[in-house]
Amino acid sequence: MQRYFAKETINDEYSLPKEMYKHAIKVMRMSEGDEFELVDNNQSVFLMELVLVENNTATARKVKEITKNVELPIDVTIACGISKGDKAEFIVQKATEMGVKKIIFFNGDYSVAKWDEKRQKKKIERLSKVAQSASEQSHRNFIPEVEYASKLSSIDFSKYDTKLVAYEESAKQGEKSTLYQILNGKIENMIAIFGPEGGISPNEIQMLLQKDCKLAGLGPRIMRAETAPLYLLSSISFAKELS
Amino acid sequence: MQRYFAKETINDEYSLPKEMYKHAIKVMRMSEGDEFELVDNNQSVFLMELVLVENNTATARKVKEITKNVELPIDVTIACGISKGDKAEFIVQKATEMGVKKIIFFNGDYSVAKWDEKRQKKKIERLSKVAQSASEQSHRNFIPEVEYASKLSSIDFSKYDTKLVAYEESAKQGEKSTLYQILNGKIENMIAIFGPEGGISPNEIQMLLQKDCKLAGLGPRIMRAETAPLYLLSSISFAKELS
């Protein structure tokens, strides 16, 4: 069933805002009597029924609350070095499907492509829309936030209880216990750092170690910059959601 | 370091075939003294040094054998329903990075796009090249095979000791123990079936159950057809390669 996100708290009746109207009525061709799911600003989800569609407006009525929650049991932020092409969109879409809470894109020392202040605003706006649409598709209760950091060291690492760096050199040296041990422990919120295509610079690694980040290998194969976050998020789900 | 795959057994000297020559000398601009890695038809890997480059030919010499093996400890085949667009390329590239052994694309009952006999040949050729290039990039010892099945029931399921279906209905009903239990057991070779965008039909499910396939949920979120195989492969690596 189609799911949408509302910016406000939902009362018994809800008037569809312009973009939602356009998608529901014009694209999905919904009409009176059709149902959809609506997530409000408190992450509550309601089954809604369209009761009136006329003159470019549509009104829906609350049928019942849906209590199912599909959010990961831990809050996961991924920080990804900016890479070339449409890799950022790919990461946002797939990481959202896999339950990420926040995605930060940073200009890495070794980033081939960088975003300046002007460019980043448009990029983040576009990526936030990708996150919203992927959240609707994967029936999330929450739209992941997408943020920009002009450099890795400007991220506030202090608010995370678990900090991990996916480090290719660790993987090459056969490091294979850090992620396993971390995921077998208690975590509330985690940040995981992934370099751009060119990797993470020695200066960045030193800074991350000073911030108590742990270097981890994600298996023995070399993964592309945009693939590694998906490995991590899948592993977190496997370790924490299946049993 | 650049890695290539040879079709033959490597003697002390190796003359680069046309495509490898083009990539190594023209694209990567390698010259005499430069080194690369070469995997032979027995999955042995050698460090090679270019000793002679002249007149559109290049010869390399064996420096030493590289014994590192990055293959998954179990053979995993994924069978994916044919989906629209370039999703097949995406699946082949990412699943190769994540260690898959074989990928079968099948026309599902609910496939919106289907490949006929004529089209499939070109598709499989193209996808095999994607697999080769991703294997080079991720330093695999093996290029995954890419195959076509005109329908799901024409796949030979008898040769796998573990058979799993990623089934959205199972996920919706909160099924969360099958994959965990399977990966905690002993596996030599596994096949996992993923539906196309439209899902797996009741007839297909019935056939799969008769073949002893187990229905498994891959976490509570709805993933796109091309994302679910990556969840599975990451989980296998996490469960079997990390500790």
Secondary structure blueprint with pairings:
The structure is a homodimer of 243-residue chains.
Chain A: E1 3-5, E2 13-15, H1 18-27, E3 35-39, E4 45-54, E5 57-66, E6 75-81, H2 87-97, E7 102-106, H3 117-137, E8 145-149, E9 162-166, H4 168-172, H5 178-183, E10 189-194, H6 202-210, E11 214-216, H7 228-241
InterPro entries (chains A, B): Alpha/beta_knot_MTases, PUA-like_sf, RsmE, RsmE_MTase_dom, RsmE_PUA-like, tRNA_m1G_MTases_N
Main location (chains A, B): cytoplasm
GO molecular function (chains A, B): rRNA (uridine-N3-)-methyltransferase activity
Using the coordinates above, name the CATH class of the largest domain in chain A: Alpha Beta
Total DSSP E strands of chain A: 11
Low-confidence stretches of chain A: none
The main pleated sheet of chain A reads as: 6 strands, parallel
Structural class of chain A: alpha/beta
Mean pLDDT reading of chain A: 95
Shape descriptor of chain A reads elongated
Please tally the helical runs of chain A, counting DSSP H or I stretches of 4 or more residues. 7
Organism (chains A, B): Ligilactobacillus hayakitensis DSM 18933 = JCM 14209
InterPro entries (chains A, B): Alpha/beta_knot_MTases, PUA-like_sf, RsmE, RsmE_MTase_dom, RsmE_PUA-like, tRNA_m1G_MTases_N
Subcellular location (chains A, B): Cytoplasm
Function (chains A, B): Specifically methylates the N3 position of the uracil ring of uridine 1498 (m3U1498) in 16S rRNA. Acts on the fully assembled 30S ribosomal subunit.
